[in-house]
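anyone seen this seq b4? input:
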Amino acid sequence: MPLEIERRFLVTGSAWRDVALAPQPLRQGYLAASEEGVTVRMRLRADGQAWLTLKAPAAGIARHEFEYPLPSADAEALWELAPQRVIKTRYPLALSGGDWVVDCFEGENAPLVLAEVELDSDNASLELPSWCGQEITGDGRWSNAALASTPLSAWPTEVRRRYGFGTLQ
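predicted toks r here
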């Protein structure tokens, strides 16, 4: 069964841009999400490539992940049907120690910037770049599905401040 093993961090500063590769604008529509952590998502990249992804909890920080290519017309139709959405730009990073990306969120989740690293195992050693702030691995509020349902702008002001976001426009 395919597994996704990743750690996630709030990003501080912009030094990550020194290792960023070509940006990938993404739209993600969440078609279903359960309280148990099972999600059904469509992802559409600006170049027209699209995927349908099903995720479910596994042991530790791992998640089961099943991903299937979608025709872009089907993805556009699913986007229109999706009750919750996230728009972001993803930057793959030229870093060792795993597959690193930085996501810059738009709309109601701006100015959120998160880093993710996919690992081979949940106990893989990891050297964190200086711009990795607080680790948020396992905190469901920061999942893309949760941010689609309850965007950062809808969080109570005191919670946003605790994470350095203060007043949002």
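The mean pLDDT is 94. The beta strands are 3-11, 24-33, 39-45, 50-57, 62-70, 84-92, 99-105, 113-118, 132-135. kinda curious what u guys think
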